[in-house]
């Protein structure tokens, strides 16, 4: 019924309109003039209801966007709760101001942008102008308060013309453009210190004209060295940067000690020269053009130009041949010295030795060089003493190859209690003579039995009767450990046929532990039946009482059944049968076409094998 009443009322209104003219409560404002007329009412009104916010925001999408983002005045919670018509009413005539604000009472903070400092005194129309609006649609509207940006450069000209960061509030506040109270020169590439901190900014940051506008330079100002701004009083006679000698506190304060890079000059400071006070060599003067200029063109190797020659010229004036700048007492390697003019010419490894290794005191002090042990410690600790006297090192060592090399020969070793034979000849000396406990070479009391050096892997596995007193030579030789010379006839199982060609470990070591023989060896109580070592390919075909005795058919020299007697079977071979191959009868193709070996044939009639 309500729906019929609504349309009845609308029909009645249209009838009155046609009969008596427009009955609108008043003209719409200029902004909404295109919506004038009874046929357009429903674009803003719902029948029987007031104007809804939904219809307003369907047209005013920029306001809907602010509401969604909760930005600006319309994005405030208390404003969102109100109906649009509470602030923006209509039908009051073409010239009615729908956006009327009490500028004096309006709280600008409700827009999300608080007016502070100088902004508090600025007239609204100074900021809310089309020139400051970036959006082209909003820019066309008259008296709009929308579209402004909070960034400074959206309203203000960039005085710095893009030479500085665009975030003005990093340096400026809202009170005034000058000065810039937030700017911290310590955050710049050039920090102010000393006298620089009292200099007026304009002294360094000059005023100029750029792009036709007044401009003050704050970037791209050279400061790599003081002469970028200051005149050089030394007229480029002193190399390097001013800060090596001067401070920003006072130009007259000298700080060049340990600071000035003397390598920039023709005289490189080394050793003790680096610790010497500058004015120990240079005359003191306050004249900028003369300071440090009194030692020019002096060769850095001409020591006698500054130092007294304590040798009175006996060794020439080239002091650096023997002495170092670290200390006058610190001598060089003296490689230039010809030791051949002395009673002990240097040879071999001695040539490489630093002089001070032998000349502990003065170079002129005599040295007893009659024996090596006068200088060298006896590494062998008397091991080679005979009648209380150790032989000299030169009997085994040479100056050419040093102590790491020995002149001791194999022929000499044959004269010892342990002559080298077989594989021992090819064994490196250190394998026997270097102790694993202290990594030291030793040559005495080493033992001559195999077990003194080698681990007895058979201990507990082989009866002592086969190698009494752990004597490995009962089976092994020096030629190679794997070569075994053992008489197997001494055992209960003499080797015959192919068994004589098999390696011992093939039978006496577990295949899975061949690389760990201690764990997998077996010598006693080995089984002697063939199936213990060999695969029984016949299974139980020839078993008697569950045991297959291979020796009934085979011999150790070949797997061929040499001892098999076909006459003892149910089918003795006669005539042509005695001449044919075994496979002709015993190899049969199965249903899958595969060849099977059948040793026991159940049928012996001719027709079973021969075709009719």
UniProtKB/TrEMBL annotation:
The keyword Signal applies. It comes from the Bacteria. Keywords: Signal. InterPro entries: Multihaem_cyt_sf, Multiheme_Cytochr_ET. Gene3D superfamilies: Cytochrome C3 (3.90.10.10), Flavocytochrome C3, Chain A (1.10.1130.10). Coiled coil: none annotated. One of its GO terms (molecular function) is oxidoreductase activity. This is Uncharacterized protein. It comes from Arenibacter echinorum.
